[in-house]
Amino acid sequence: MTSEHPTPGELLDLHFGEARGERESRAAAHVAACPPCREELASVKWVERSLAGLPEEPPPADGLERVMSRVAGNGRARGRGPGWLGLSAAGAAGVGGSAAVIYGLGAWLLALPPFAQWSVLEPARIVSGFGLAALAFFAVGSFVTLALAPALLIEAESRARALAGR
């Protein structure tokens, strides 16, 4: 038995005869030696046989409308969102938390050797520490945003396609 199980998609490809060449032989060899994978394929075969025994009926003409009305009904049942007061409180908490993190980071940065030797008045140290920390905070945020941008763009595109297909 190979050490890595085939994915469910590879098992389905093997079942439906869509796996070719080395993929087919590797998956077949694994299934021959792996009882859990054989059970998985047996359950796929059982489902296929069960579905084949059902009578062929077309879906109801209003099936999509019924499903969409149930989805819309569930959206209304959830109730209203938090409203402007709740969102304002969440925003204020986020800004306050960010300011506290920036202030603490500034104090830590000012304790580092290059900055600990500054001979400036305390208000200037606080402002410069706050500035250094804000710069670091927003630099990290920029890198995180850039790292997430491709995934966000793909998600936005798929949602736009779904909306256009309605």
Summarize the structure.
The protein has helices at residues 8-15, 21-33, 35-52, 63-77, 83-110, 113-116, 122-165. It is an all-alpha fold and 166 residues long. Helix 1 crosses helix 2 and helix 2 crosses helix 3.
List keywords for this structure.
elongated, 166 residues, mainly alpha, 7 helices, 2 domains
Structure report:
It is a single chain. With 166 residues, the chain is mainly alpha-helical. It folds into two domains: 8-52, no CATH class; 91-165, no CATH class. 78% of the residues lie in helices and 0% in strands. It contains seven helices and no strands. It has helices spanning 8-15, 21-33, 35-52, 63-77, 83-110, 113-116, 122-165. Helix 2 packs across helix 3. The longest helix is centred in the last third of the chain and has 44 residues, at 122-165. The relative contact order is 0.05. The mean pLDDT is 80.
Write the topology of this structure.
Elements: H1 8-15, H2 21-33, H3 35-52, H4 63-77, H5 83-110, H6 113-116, H7 122-165
Helix pairs in contact: 1-2, 2-3, 5-7
Number of domains: 2
SSE string, helices as H and strands as E: HHHHHHH
- Mean pLDDT value: 80
Overall geometry comes to elongated
N→C terminal distance: 47 Å
- Spatial extent as radius of gyration: 29 Å
Please report the number of helical segments.
7
Instruction: Give unreliable regions as ranges.
Output: none
Helix percentage: over 70%
User: Which structural class is indicated by helix and strand composition?
Assistant: mainly alpha
Q: How many E-type strands?
A: 0
Which strand-content bin applies to the residues? under 5%
Q: Largest sheet, described in full?
A: none
